[in-house]
Specification:
136 residues, mainly alpha, Helix Hairpins, 6 helices, binds magnesium ion
Length: 136
């Protein structure tokens, strides 16, 4: 049996890991190990990672370009589109995790802090059902 570290992904393992049983820390460690094993740390500057994150986001957006709002909601009903969109979303998450690793930012802390600011900026009573708001 080949040995592997606890956070190394093996074929089929992704089927066992879900959002409900996997922590952000585990995902960050998987990303950190993937990068380290390939000696890619030297390329993972914050500049390169931020640019890569934007590029992967654009690749995700391409799937929704030129389709109607309703069609965009139905796109993932097609299994091949669902897989392709999921892979782009995974790329976005990968670079988000890599950037957080590179900058030593705690994602849970900064996400919750930002959501707290958003909640103060957009109180439910004055924001509910309204899209005419400034960008958070
Ligand atoms: Mg991609």
């Amino acid at each position: 049996m080949p040995s592997s570290s606890p956070n190394q992904l093996n074929p089929g393992q992704s089927a066992q890991k879900t959002d409900t049983n996997t922590t952000l820390a585990e995902l960050r460690q998987i990303m950190r190990q993937f990068v380290h094993e390939r000696d890619w740390d030297q390329f993972h500057s914050p500049k390169n990672l931020a640019m890569s994150l934007a590029i992967e986001t654009a690749e995700l957006m391409e799937h929704f370009q030129w389709v109607t709002v309703e069609a965009s909601r139905q796109l993932t009903a097609d299994p091949s589109k669902r897989e392709a969109i999921g892979e782009e979303l995974a790329d976005v998450l990968s670079y988000t995790l890599a950037l957080a690793n590179s900058l030593d930012l705690d994602l849970a802390t900064i996400f919750l802090d930002k959501m707290s600011k958003n909640a103060r900026k957009y109180p439910v009573e004055s924001s509910r059902g309204k899209s005419d708001r400034p960008t958070p």
